[in-house]
Design goal:
The complex is a heterotrimer. By secondary structure, chain A is mainly α. Chain A contains 14 helices and 2 strands; from the N terminus they run ααββαααααααααααα. The N and C termini of chain A lie far apart (about 55 Å). Chain B is of the alpha/beta class. Chain C has 2 domains: about 5-230, 3-Layer(aba) Sandwich (Rossmann fold); about 235-325, OB fold (Dihydrolipoamide Acetyltransferase, E2P) (Beta Barrel), CATH 2.40.50.140. By secondary structure, chain C is an alpha+beta fold. Chain C has 9 helices and 18 strands. In chain C, helix 2 (about 95-100) packs across helix 3, helix 2 runs parallel beside helix 4 (about 135-150) and helix 3 packs across helix 4. In chain C, strands 6-7-8-3-9-10 form a 6-stranded mixed beta sheet, with helices on both faces. Chain C has a 5-stranded antiparallel beta sheet with strand order 13-17-14-15-16, with no helix packed on it. The two termini of chain C are about 30 Å apart. Classes of the chains: A mainly alpha, B alpha/beta, C alpha+beta. The interface between A and B is large, with 40 and 40 residues.
Chain lengths: ~300, ~375, ~325
C-alpha cells in the first residue's frame, strides 16, 4: 500500500499550524496585539495623561490642581532655579554618557574581538552581575565607600594617595567636603550604575563588525588609530547611540542617586519626584518630565543628522 | 462630553458645599477592620524597631482595626498623599494642617466621640493650626522642638547659638564648620533662618518667622545662601542624616529628638540642645480624611492616640512632649516629669510652631511671602542660586 | 626573473594544528600565481602570511627581497581582495575605493580622481555615489578590486575572489581578471579551491595538502604529470591506478594516473569493469566503471555508442598517457 498524499491531522496543533499557514497574517496579529495594546494604551496613554497634566496649574496655597488649560506651569520651568535644575541635569547626563562610552569601549571591544568561550561567559557575568543586586543596595554601598570616613578615604590614606581625593574635591563647583557630598560622587555612582547599559549594546554592535573589515583597513595602509576612527567607530556608532540613549535618559530620570550621594542640589528626576510626591505639584512635575523627552528627541535628531544610523 | 463634565462639576460643587454639615460623624458604628494612617517616621510603633515601644498591637486586638502606616518624610509629602486619597488619618504638622483644611482634604472632628479630649493639654485644645472658626479638624498628638543636634566630641559644652549652622566659624575642635553641618531639606527651614535673624537682627522687625515681608524674606534667604556654603548635603531622611553623623563627619545640624535618641542608643557621642534663639517646633494633629473609608476605626484610633500610656511611651520614644499632660506624671508609661521638662514641656511659649506661611498675614493683606515661593526659592538656594 | 614573494621553510602553527608546515615557495614578478587546495590545506593562511595578518611561527618571508617578518600589514606594499569583499558599508563606493589614499593623506580632489579612474578600470564608471549595499555581488567584487588596486601595490592578493559569483559571471570575471593582470603587469596571487579556475587562469600554481605544498608548477605540469596521488585526485578528476592495476595494464608496479580523456572503452582488454554510472557532459559522456573495487572513468565523445548501466566492458588507453607518480 502506498502512503497517502495528505497525511492525517494530529489534532489541535496541526489544525492551528494549518490555519496560520493559510492565513499568515493571523499569527502576526495574534502575536503583536498584546504588546501593541500595552504600548498604545498603557504607555502612550500615560504619556498623554502626563502631557495633559503639564498644561494644568496648581493652586499654591491648598496644593490642589486646577484643571484648566494654562501655560503657566511651563513658564515656571524657565525660572532661574528650575533652569538650573535642567542645565545641571543635562550636563550630568552628558558627562556620565561620555564617561560610560569611554570606559565601555575597551571592555566591549575586548569582549567582541578577543574573548572566546569561557572568557566570554566571564565577561557577560561580570557585566551583568552588578545588575543582579538591588540598585538601592549598590547606591547605599557607594555612599559608604565615598563617605568622608569611608573605605576610599581609608584606602587612599593608607597608601598615601589622599592628595588625589583632596585635589579632586578642591575643584570649584564640582568638589565638596567629601566625595559622597559632591557632584563628583554623584557622577561616579551614575557611571557605575549605568555602565552595563553602555557596554552591552556597544559590544553587540562591535561584534557585528567583521574582522575582514579591520583587516581591509590595515591592508590599505591605515594605522590602528585611523582604523578606529574611520571604520570601527562609525560601524559601532549605532551601538554607542543605543547605549547613550540608555545612560543619558536613565541619568536624566534618576531621582534616587542624587538624593543619597551628592550636594542635595536638585536634578530633573528628583525635581519630578519632589514636585509630585512631596509638593503635590503634579503639573510642574509633568512639565519637568516633558523636558527629558524633548531633549531625547533633539538628541536623536542630531544623532541622525550626524549619520549615526547610516550603518544600520 | 462637555455636558457630562459640567454635570460632574456641578455635582461636585454641591457636594462640597454641603460637606461640612454632613461629614461630621455623629456616632461610632461597627469597626471596619482597618485604618490607614499617613505618619512621620517613628510615630506609630508596633514594636518592630524596639520591642519596648509598641502601641499598635494591643489596639488592633482590642478594636479589630488593623493599622496600616504610610511613612512620609516631609509635610509637603503628607499633603500630597492626602490629596491623592485612600487614607483615613494623617499626623499633620502645623505647616500642613491648614493647607489640608483649606483644600477640603480633612473633615471636622466630633470631639464628643473622643472621650479623652478633656485630658488634652489646654494649650493645644484650641490651637490655631487645627481649629478654624471654632471648628476642630483634628486631635492633637504630640509636639516638640526642632533641636540642635551636635557631636559631643567636638562640642564639650552644648552650643549656645544656632550660629554654628548658619555662619562660617571655627568650632571648639579648632577646625572650620565648613562641610560639617547640615540643614533640613524642606522649605519650612526658611523659618529657622528667620528666627535666627529675629534674635540677631532686631532691626528687621520680624515678629513671626512664618510671616515675612519681602525685606525680611530676602534677609532670610541671604542667610540660607551663607549656610549653603557650609552644608555639604541637606537632610530629609532621618536615617540618612544619622548615617551622615556617623560616616560623613557631620557634627551639628537642626534635627529631631528622634534621631538624637536613636544615635545615643547606638552609643554615638551625640546630644541636643535648644540654643538661645529658641527653636521652631512642630505640633502634630491627627486629622481625618474627608473621604475616609474607615471612619469608625479612625475615631477609635483617635481616642486610643490620647491614652496616657501611649502618649507617655510615644514622648519617650520620640523625645517630644505628649499632648496629654497627665502622661508626664501618672506613671502609666515610661515618661517622667523630668523627662518632659528636658523635652521642653515648659518651653511651649518659646517655641514657634510650624505653620503654613500665607500672603495675608498680621502685617497686612498680601504683605507676606506665601509658601509656594518658599518652596521654589529654597530649591534655588540649595541649587546654589 | 625578479622574485616577488619568497617563502623559506615557512610554518604557521595554531597550537597543535600545523596550518602551514615548512613551505618553500617562489613567486615570479608579474606572474599570475594560484594557490589551490581543499579547505584547511593551508593556502589561505599562506596568503595571510604574505599580507601580514598572520605571523609565521618559523621560516622567513621576503617580498621583493626584503624580509617582512617584522613589518605590519599597513606598511606592506601588498593589497588584498577579500573573499567577502569587506567593503565599508558606511562609505559610498568612491570613498571605499579612495580609502587607501585617504589614510595616506591624499587631498580629496586627487584621491577622488584616482578612485574614479580605478572605477573606470573595473567598468564601474558612475557608481561612485552608491553605497555597497545597493550593488550586486559582481559589482561589489569589482569595487573590492578597484579598492585594492588604488594604492598600486606590487603584489595583489585575491582570496577566493570569485567564490560567491554564479557560473556565468565567474567565467566572465576570470577572463577580466586575467586581462587586467596582463595589462597592469602586477603580480597576482590568488587562492582558490576550484581546480578549473586555477588551471585556466594561473601561469603557475601550487597545490596544497595538509599544510604542505604537494606540487608546484605550470597548469600543464600539474594536470598532465601529477606528482602524487593527492594531486591527481584533486586536480584532474584523473583515474588513479593502484600498482597492481598499473602492472596489469603493462606498466611497472607503481601508482599511476590516467586521464579519462585518454581512456577509451574497448571490447576486450586486460582490465574490465562494470558500468556504474553515465554522466552526460554535453560534448562527451563520462562513463564510470567499477574495476575490482577501483573506480575508473572514461570519456566517450558525443556521437559514439554508449554502454548501458550494469554492462561489463574493458578499457583501452594511449600508453603515453600513463603517468607514474609517488605513493603520497
Amino acid at each position: 500500500m502506498t502512503a497517502p498524499a495528505i497525511l492525517p491531522g494530529r489534532g489541535l496543533p496541526d489544525r492551528l499550524t494549518g490555519l496560520f499557514w493559510r492565513r499568515p497574517n493571523l499569527l502576526l496579529v495574534l502575536l503583536i496585539t498584546p504588546p501593541l495594546l500595552w504600548l498604545g494604551v498603557i504607555y502612550l496613554g500615560s504619556l498623554a495623561a502626563l502631557l495633559l497634566q503639564s498644561f494644568y496649574a496648581i493652586d499654591e496655597f491648598s496644593g490642589v490642581v486646577k484643571e484648566e488649560f494654562t501655560l503657566k506651569t511651563y513658564a515656571e520651568l524657565f525660572r532661574a532655579q528650575n533652569l538650573d535644575i535642567i542645565l545641571r541635569t543635562i550636563l550630568m547626563a552628558a558627562a556620565v554618557t561620555i564617561a560610560c562610552a569611554v570606559l565601555a569601549f575597551p571592555i566591549a571591544y575586548y569582549a567582541a574581538r578577543y574573548a572566546k568561550g569561557r572568557w566570554k561567559a566571564a565577561f557577560y557575568l561580570g557585566v551583568m552581575l552588578p545588575l543582579w543586586s538591588s540598585y538601592l543596595v549598590k547606591v547605599y554601598a557607594w555612599k559608604l565607600i565615598l563617605a568622608k570616613e569611608g573605605i576610599l578615604t581609608w584606602a587612599t590614606d593608607a597608601t598615601g594617595t589622599g592628595f588625589l581625593i583632596s585635589g579632586l574635591l578642591s575643584i570649584p563647583g564640582l568638589g565638596g567636603s567629601s566625595l559622597s557630598t559632591s557632584y563628583i560622587g554623584t557622577f561616579l555612582v551614575f557611571v557605575y550604575v549605568w555602565l552595563p547599559y553602555m557596554i552591552l549594546p556597544m559590544q553587540a554592535s562591535l561584534e557585528r563588525v567583521p574582522t575582514s573589515m579591520l583587516e581591509a583597513s590595515a591592508d590599505l595602509g591605515a594605522t590602528r588609530r585611523q582604523t578606529l576612527r574611520t571604520v570601527i567607530l562609525p560601524l559601532a556608532l549605532p551601538g554607542v547611540i543605543a547605549g547613550s540613549i540608555f545612560t543619558f535618559s536613565l541619568t536624566m530620570g534618576d531621582y534616587i542617586i542624587p538624593q543619597i550621594v551628592g550636594t542635595s542640589a536638585r536634578f530633573i528626576g528628583l525635581a519630578v519626584y519632589q514636585q509630585q510626591g512631596t509638593a503635590g505639584n503634579i503639573p510642574l512635575a509633568a512639565a519637568f518630565a516633558v523636558v527629558p523627552i524633548v531633549i531625547m528627541v533633539i538628541y536623536l535628531m542630531l544623532a541622525k543628522r550626524a549619520g549615526a544610523f547610516d550603518a544600520l | 462630553m462637555q455636558r457630562l463634565k459640567l454635570l460632574g462639576t456641578t455635582t461636585l460643587a454641591l457636594l462640597t458645599a454641603v460637606t461640612p454639615v454632613l461629614a461630621q460623624v455623629t456616632e461610632i458604628g461597627a469597626p471596619e477592620g482597618q485604618v490607614n494612617i499617613v505618619a512621620w517616621a517613628g510615630y506609630i510603633e508596633r514594636g518592630e524597631t524596639d520591642k519596648a515601644f509598641d502601641w499598635v498591637t494591643k489596639f488592633e486586638a482590642a478594636s479589630g482595626c488593623k493599622v496600616n502606616v504610610k511613612t512620609a518624610n516631609t509635610s509637603d509629602e503628607m499633603v500630597a498623599l492626602m490629596n491623592e486619597g485612600g487614607f483615613d488619618l494623617v499626623t499633620a504638622s502645623g505647616d500642613a494642617s491648614l493647607r489640608l483644611i483649606a483644600g477640603d482634604r480633612v473633615q471636622p472632628i466630633n470631639i464628643d466621640l473622643v472621650p479623652s479630649w478633656k485630658t488634652v493639654d489646654e494649650r493645644l485644645q484650641n490651637a490655631p493650626w487645627h481649629t478654624v472658626d471654632g471648628v476642630h479638624y483634628g486631635v492633637p498628638y504630640m509636639w516638640g522642638p526642632n533641636v540642635l543636634m551636635y557631636n559631643t566630641e567636638v562640642f564639650k559644652e552644648p552650643p549656645t547659638s544656632w550660629n554654628v549652622v548658619f555662619e562660617e566659624m571655627t568650632l571648639p575642635d579648632g577646625k572650620s564648620n565648613k562641610g560639617r553641618v547640615q540643614a533640613y531639606d524642606g522649605p519650612i527651614h526658611v523659618a529657622d533662618a528667620a528666627q535666627y535673624l529675629m534674635f540677631h537682627k532686631p532691626e528687621l522687625g520680624i515678629t513671626s518667622p512664618y510671616e515675612l515681608n519681602e525685606d525680611q524674606y530676602k534677609a532670610a534667604l541671604d542667610l540660607l545662601r551663607v549656610q549653603r556654603e557650609l552644608t555639604s548635603r541637606y537632610w530629609h531622611d532621618a536615617f540618612i542624616q544619622m548615617d551622615d553623623f556617623k560616616n560623613e563627619g557631620v557634627v551639628a545640624s537642626g534635627s529631631w529628638p528622634f534621631q538624637v535618641n536613636l544615635l545615643k542608643a547606638d552609643g554615638q557621642p551625640i546630644a541636643s540642645t535648644i540654643p538661645q534663639e529658641g527653636a521652631t517646633g512642630w505640633a502634630d494633629t491627627t486629622m481625618m480624611h474627608v473621604d475616609s473609608a474607615n471612619p469608625n476605626c479612625s475615631y477609635l484610633w483617635m481616642e486610643h492616640s490620647l491614652a496616657s500610656n501611649l502618649q507617655s511611651d510615644l514622648s519617650v520614644w520620640f523625645g517630644a512632649n505628649p499632648a496629654v499632660p497627665a502622661a508626664c506624671t501618672d506613671g502609666r508609661g515610661m515618661q517622667t516629669a523630668e523627662g518632659c521638662t528636658t523635652n521642653g514641656m515648659d518651653d511651649f511659649e518659646k517655641i514657634r510652631f510650624w505653620t503654613t506661611p500665607v500672603s495675608n498675614c498680621s502685617q497686612g493683606e498680601g504683605a507676606c511671602v506665601p509658601y509656594y515661593r518658599w518652596v521654589s526659592d529654597y530649591i534655588g538656594v540649595i541649587g546654589g542660586r | 626573473m625578479t622574485v616577488a614573494v619568497e617563502f623559506q621553510n615557512v610554518s604557521r602553527h595554531f597550537g597543535q594544528v600545523r596550518a602551514v608546515d615548512g613551505v618553500d615557495l617562489t613567486i615570479a614578478e608579474g606572474s599570475f600565481f594560484a594557490m589551490l587546495g581543499p579547505s584547511g590545506s593551508g593556502k589561505t593562511t599562506c596568503l595571510r602570511l604574505i599580507s601580514g595578518f598572520e605571523k609565521p611561527t618559523g621560516g622567513a618571508i621576503r617580498i621583493f627581497g626584503e624580509d617582512v617578518s617584522n613589518t605590519p600589514p599597513h606598511l606592506r606594499n601588498v593589497n588584498t581582495v577579500f573573499q567577502d569583499y569587506a567593503l565599508f558599508p558606511h562609505m559610498n563606493v568612491r570613498d571605499n575605493v579612495a580609502y587607501g589614499l585617504m589614510v595616506k593623506g591624499a587631498a580629496r580632489a586627487a584621491r577622488y580622481a584616482k578612485a574614479d579612474e580605478m572605477l573606470a578600470l573595473v567598468k564601474l564608471d558612475g557608481y561612485g555615489d552608491r553605497k555597497p549595499g545597493q550593488l550586486s555581488g559582481g559589482q561589489r567584487q569589482r569595487v573590492a578590486l578597484a579598492r585594492a588596486l588604488v594604492n598600486e601595490p606590487r603584489v595583489l592578493l585575491l582570496d577566493e575572489p570569485l567564490g560567491a559569483l554564479d557560473l556565468k559571471l565567474r567565467e566572465a570575471m576570470q577572463d577580466e581578471l586575467k586581462s587586467l593582470q596582463q595589462r597592469l603587469g602586477i603580480t597576482f596571487v590568488f587562492v582558490t579551491h576550484d581546480q578549473n579556475e586555477a588551471l585556466s587562469m594561473a601561469d603557475s600554481l601550487a597545490v596544497f595538502n595538509e599544510g604542505r605544498i604537494a606540487q608546484i608548477g605550470t597548469p600543464q605540469d600539474i594536470y598532465d604529470r601529477p606528482a602524487t596521488r593527492f594531486v591527481a585526485d584533486f586536480v584532474g578528476s584523473s583515474n588513479v591506478l593502484p600498482p597492481e592495476m598499473t602492472r596489469a595494464l603493462g606498466g611497472p608496479a607503481e601508482w599511476a594516473s590516467l586521464r579519462p580523456e585518454a581512456t577509451r572503452l574497448a571490447a576486450t582488454g586486460p582490465v574490465t569493469g562494470t558500468v556504474t554510472a553515465l554522466r552526460y557532459l554535453g560534448s562527451a559522456t563520462r562513463v564510470v566503471l567499477d574495476a575490482n573495487g577501483t573506480e575508473l572513468a572514461a570519456l566517450v565523445p558525443a556521437g559514439q555508442p554508449l554502454p548501458s548501466e550494469g554492462q561489463t566492458t574493458a578499457i583501452a588507453f594511449d600508453p603515453s598517457a600513463l603517468h607514474l607518480m609517488a605513493a603520497s
